[in-house]
Amino acid sequence: MMTTSKKPEEPFTIVIVGDKGVGKTTLLNRFGQSEGAVMATHVDNKEVIACFWDVLAPSLSGYKDKLMKKADAFLVVYDVTKEKSFESILEWNITMKLKTIEFPFNVAVSKHVMMMVIGSKNDLEEKRAVSKEHGEEYAKKLGAIAFREMNTLNFTKEPFLWMLQAVSLRRKFPNREKFMEQLIKEEDEKSSKNAQS
Ligand SMILES: Nc1nc2c(ncn2[C@@H]2O[C@H](COP(=O)(O)OP(=O)(O)OP(=O)(O)O)[C@@H](O)[C@H]2O)c(=O)[nH]1
Ligand SMILES: [Mg+2]
C-alpha cells in the first residue's frame, strides 16, 4: 500500500480580532464560513492545518478567552477609513498579550504573540483616513510579523497561506529571534527565486 501523505500535526489556532464593522465576518465569508474557517497547505511536504476564528462572533462568545489563550497567532484587523479602529489595534495587542501570557507570570517563558495586522477596505480610497505607510510602520512598531492591506470583499488567500507557513516555522523555531531570522531568510530566498524565474 502506498501512503505518501504524512500525518498532519495538531491544527494551529489563528484568532481574528478588531473593532466592530472592520470586516471580520466579511473576511471569513470569503472562505465560505461565518465564525471560523479551516485552511490547509503544505510546508516541507507536511500538511499544515489552521483554524481561523472570529472570536467576536456572537456564537463564540463563550469560547473567547479559551480561544485567545490557545492562539498561535492573531490577525488584527482595522478599517483604513476609520482612524478609531486603527487606534484600537494597540488595545487589541495588549489584550492578546494578557490573554496568552503564562502564569505564574514569567516573561522569559511567556509566549511571544505572533500578529499580522490587516488594514481592510483599501478599495475605499476616497475615504481613507490611515495611510498605508503609517499603518505598516505602526504594525512593525507593535511587533507584527506582517502587514497587509486588502479589500475583504475580494482578496486572495495568499496572506493566510503565508500565515500558515509562518506559524509552522515558529513551531520549528520557538525562540523569537531565531524565528525572525529564519523568516527573513526564507522570504529572501523566495524573492530571489521569483526574480530568477
Ligand atoms: N468597501 C468595503 N466594504 C467592506 C470591506 N470589508 C467589509 N466591508 C463592509 O463593512 C461592513 C461591516 O463588515 P463586517 O464583516 O460585518 O464587520 P465585522 O468586523 O464582522 O463587525 P462586527 O461583527 O460588528 O464586529 C459590511 O457592510 C461589509 O460589507 C472592504 O474591504 N471594503
Ligand atoms: Mg462580525
UniProtKB/TrEMBL annotation:
Presence of the UniProt keyword Transmembrane in the record? no
Task: Specify the domain of life of the species encoding this protein.
Answer: Eukaryota
- Any keyword Nucleotide-binding? yes
The record's listing under InterPro entries reads: P-loop_NTPase, Rab, Small_GTPase
- Which UniProt keywords are present, listed alphabetically? GTP-binding, Nucleotide-binding
PANTHER family named among the record's database cross-references: RAS-RELATED PROTEIN RAB
Can you say what this protein is called?
A: Uncharacterized protein
**What are the top taxonomic ranks of the organism?**
Eukaryota, Metazoa, Ecdysozoa, Arthropoda, Hexapoda
